Structure formats: C-alpha cells, structure tokens
C-alpha cells in the first residue's frame, strides 16, 4: 500500500503529447506544427527550385538566366516585405472589408504565441456567433512561413507572363508594390475574414487568391510592358525540355503541401485534398495530351506540362471539398477548356493575339482558376464543407446549395479580376514614369548578357544545330583581302559560340 501511494503521488511520466513549457506550451500540437512546416517547405519547393528550373528551361537559351532570376528575386523580395508588413495586411485585424491592419511579424512576442486569424469569426443573423475564429494548434511563426510561400508563388507565376523582355529593374520595383496593394487584398477578402470570406465565396486553397490573381495581373502587365521581339514571339523554343519536365514535376509534387496544408492541420480534409489534387492533375494531363494527338497528330511534352498545370489549378478552389470522382471531372474540364481557349479561341481574338503573355499564364491560371471556382460551386459536398467552411450549411448546387452559390463564386471572381486589372495597371504606370518597363530592342537581341552580364550555357545558338557536314575548314577573306582558312573552332568562336565541344 505504501508503494502504491508513492506511485500515485509521483508526477506523470513525460510523453510525446505532454506540454514541455515553455518550448511546447499546452496549446501546441506537435503533429500539426510539423505538418504545417513540411507543407510550407513543399510549397516553397514549387517556387525554389521548381519554377526557377521550369522558367530557366522553357525559354530560349538567351533568356534562361533572366527568367530564372525573375522568379528567384520575386521569392526573396516577397519574404522581406511579408514579415515587415504584408502578413498582417492579409491576415491581421480588420481595417476595411477587404484589407487588414498593417504591422510587422518580426518580434518574439508575436511569433511564439498561438496562431490566430483575428477576423475569421462568422456571425449569423442577430449577431449570433456561428463559427469561432480560426486558431490552429501551432505558433504564429509557422503560419507566417506557410502563408508567405503562397504569396511568393503568386508573384513567381505572374512573372511567367513577362519573360523575355521586361526590364529587370522595373520588375524589382514591381514585386513589393504588387504584393502590398493587390495580393494582400485578395488574401484578406477570401481567407483572412474579409467580405468575400464572410459572404461565403469558396476558395479552398487559392484558385482565386493565387491563380486568378496571377493570371489577370500577368496578362495586364504583359499589355503595359509590351511584346517580345517578333523573332522571339515567332520562335521561342525551350532550351532544355528535360529540365522543364523536372521543374514541372517539382511543381506537381509540391502541390501536396499547397492543398494539403490549406486546412491548417493534417486532418481528414487534408488527406482528401492531396488525393484529389493528384487525380485532377493526372486526368488533365491525359486529356490535354489526347486533344493534342487528335488535332495535331503528336503528343506535345510542353502541352502535357500545361495540362498538368491546369489540372492542379482547377482543383485548388475545391480540393478538400469534392468527391474524387468530381476531381476527375474537374481534371477533364481543366484539360479541355483551357486547351480550347489557348489553341482555338486565342488565335481568333485580336486582344489575346496582341498581348504577349509569354507562358500563357492567362489560360493556365486565370481561365483554369475561374473554371475551378465555378465547378467547386457546383460539386462541393455538404459533409466536406462542414469540416472546412465558416458558413454553416455551405454546399454546391448539385447538393442543394442553390444557384446562389454560383452567384457568389462568380462575384468573387469578378472582384479579384477587376481589382487586379486596376491595381496592376496603376502600379506599372507609376513605375513607368521612372523606369522603362521594357528593355530596349538592342538589348532584347542579346538577352541575358545584356541584362545580367551572364549566360546560362556556353553553347551555340538558340537550339540550332551546327552543321558538321560542312568542310573542316572554310576560306574567308583576310584583313589584306587575301583568302584565309578558318577551322571549325575558329568559325564557332567568331560566331560567339564559346566553350562548345563537338563530338565527331
């Protein structure tokens, strides 16, 4: 008895779920925190190195460095602006129906406390609290990092519309301004507790906040910056398709963190979202490829990557809210509707042909994002919505939600479209007063060397094959008018191809 009473009086043995103050307070769930950090890293890998590799390889050789650096710079500049003021403008206390109060996310007092979305409490009729504010079980620092990765990839995606001609100095000025005056508005309005969030617009993980925004802003920016050189528009072959596939693969797998981290916990919704994400991407890729074969006779690898992208984008607004068979339908739609707008409608539209959207971000992100938002308004199930939506009884039209949900989805898309069109135009027009938005034509002829003084490869040309069937030497005129024999190496050097190894 004495032994038993001693055992009962002793403190409990420490375990994996016990608080360990102050490093592990009672409110912190180690599993939730670990998953959110992993999910943030997955999303980060989509940008660095995923889109950096994709951009650097999908463009002509002379633009490889510039394209990759635009993505890298956007990622770095976004982080600094985000922790200085951006995070709290998007997820802080309400200032306006579409904007939160600015403030830093730099101090220990703020970052080590429990994460919270101050404006996300939802009140019903009569001011009755229906849904309490969102408070994940990990510190604010984890949330700041996770949401930063979303902000960064939005700007990196936007850059895809401007590759091959934008003045890098203008891009350096544009990224922080667009983050502050455009991205934070969409993020707060739809995620942070703003008016679209409270109204019941469904955007599970960024179909509107990220993809519609980047597509509309990219297309608008492409209009103001101006087109590439005609020679680049006519022929812009990738310099390395294998690396392009590798970058696309990182983007695909990284989407597990993109949609899997959106519930802010590794719960049932996260599992459904990750599965649906992969199913939609695969279905869209196959649909796009089949359409290429049917209409053009060959499966395009670039087209397959675009189909993968549209499938990922389309499922994002409803990844954790729809059945997996619905994800397949969304993938089929994502592989066909943007394919039609890009391959058919684009060539018939004067505006679309005039605006030089380098990587067709308008089609792969804006069109696919709106498509996903509308389909989510049709296919979202009440059971899954109950796990994630702040609006009690939220559901798609096919499950009794009524056409009002489609109206909300279209209304949200309209707000994001108009805001990005106006704000992006205003920012670029202001920057253009001080910095030319487009590189001059003589520098565009050169590319990376003119913009950075660096080149990606010591290889010949922009994908052209050097003709080895020509004679080993050629006769050219010397300085005195006498004929001179040049070797293959001398001919390559004179043509600006340094460091080439020719296998004979």
What does the largest sheet look like?
2 strands, antiparallel
Q: Give Rg in angstroms.
A: 26 Å
Which spans have pLDDT < 50 for at least 5 consecutive residues?
A: 1-9, 470-481, 495-504
SSE order, one letter for each helix or strand: HHHEEHEEHHHHHHHHHHHHHHHEEH
Number of strands: 6
Q: What is the 3D shape?
A: globular
Helix vs. strand class: mainly alpha
Function: Involved in ammonium transport.
Subcellular location: Cell membrane; Membrane
Domain Ammonium transporter AmtB-like: 34-457
Membrane topology: Multi-pass membrane protein
Topology record:
Blueprint: H1 2-9, H2 30-58, H3 64-91, E1 94-96, E2 99-100, H4 108-111, E3 122-123, E4 129-131, H5 140-159, H6 168-192, H7 195-199, H8 207-225, H9 230-234, H10 241-260, H11 268-296, H12 301-315, H13 324-348, H14 350-354, H15 361-379, H16 382-388, H17 404-432, H18 441-446, H19 448-452, E5 473-477, E6 483-487, H20 488-494
Antiparallel strand pairs: 1-2, 3-4, 5-6
Helix pairs in contact: 2-3, 2-5, 2-10, 3-5, 3-6, 5-8, 6-8, 6-17, 8-15, 8-17, 10-11, 10-12, 11-12, 11-13, 12-13, 12-15, 13-15, 15-17
């Amino acid at each position: 008895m004495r032994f038993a009473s001693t055992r009962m009086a002793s403190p409990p043995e420490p375990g994996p779920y016990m608080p360990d103050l102050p490093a592990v307070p009672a409110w912190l769930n180690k599993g939730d925190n670990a998953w959110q950090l992993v999910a943030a890293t997955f999303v980060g890998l989509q940008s660095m190195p995923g889109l950096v590799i994709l951009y650097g390889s999908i463009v002509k050789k002379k633009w490889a460095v510039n394209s990759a650096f635009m993505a890298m710079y956007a990622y770095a500049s976004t982080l600094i602006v985000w922790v200085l003021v951006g995070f709290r403008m998007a997820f802080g206390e309400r200032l306006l129906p579409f904007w939160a109060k600015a403030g830093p996310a730099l101090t220990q007092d703020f970052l080590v406390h429990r994460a919270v979305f101050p404006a996300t409490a939802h009140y019903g009729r009569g001011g009755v609290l229906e849904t309490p504010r969102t408070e994940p079980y990990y510190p604010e620092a984890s949330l700041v990092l996770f949401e930063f990765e979303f902000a960064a990839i939005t700007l990196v995606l936007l850059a895809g519309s401007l590759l091959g001609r934008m003045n890098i100095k203008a891009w350096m000025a544009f990224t922080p301004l667009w983050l502050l005056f455009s991205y934070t508005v969409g993020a707060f309005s739809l995620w942070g507790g703003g008016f679209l969030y409270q109204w019941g617009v469904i955007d599970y993980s960024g179909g509107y906040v990220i993809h519609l925004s980047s597509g509309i802003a990219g297309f608008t920016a492409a209009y103001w910056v101006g087109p590439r050189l005609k020679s680049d528009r006519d022929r812009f072959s990738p310099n390395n398709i294998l690396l392009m596939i590798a970058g696309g693969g990182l983007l695909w797998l990284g989407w597990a963190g993109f949609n899997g981290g959106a519930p802010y916990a590794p719960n049932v919704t996260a599992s459904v979202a990750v599965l649906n994400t992969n199913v939609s991407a695969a279905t869209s890729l196959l649909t796009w490829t089949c359409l290429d074969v049917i209409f053009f006779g060959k499966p395009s690898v670039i087209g397959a990557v675009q189909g993968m992208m549209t499938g990922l984008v389309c499922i994002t607004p409803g990844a954790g809210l729809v059945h997996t068979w619905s994800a397949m339908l969304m993938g089929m739609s994502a592989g066909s509707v943007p394919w039609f707008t890009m391959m058919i409608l684009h060539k018939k539209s004067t505006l679309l042909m005039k605006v030089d959207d380098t990587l067709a971000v308008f089609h792969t992100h804006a069109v696919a994002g709106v498509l996903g938002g509308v389909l989510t308004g049709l296919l979202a199930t009440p059971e899954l919505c109950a796990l994630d939506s702040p609006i009690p009884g939220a559901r798609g039209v096919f499950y009794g939600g009524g056409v009002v949900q489609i109206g909300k989805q279209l209304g949200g898309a309209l707000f994001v479209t108009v805001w990005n069109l106006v704000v992006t135009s205003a920012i670029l027009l202001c920057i253009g007063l001080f910095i030319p938005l487009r590189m001059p034509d003589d520098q565009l002829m050169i590319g990376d060397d003119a913009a950075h003084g660096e080149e990606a490869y010591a290889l010949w040309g922009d994908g052209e094959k050097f003709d080895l069937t020509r004679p080993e030497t050629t006769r050219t005129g010397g300085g005195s008018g006498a004929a001179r024999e040049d070797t293959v190496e001398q001919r390559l050097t004179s043509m600006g191809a340094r460091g080439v190894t020719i296998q004979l």
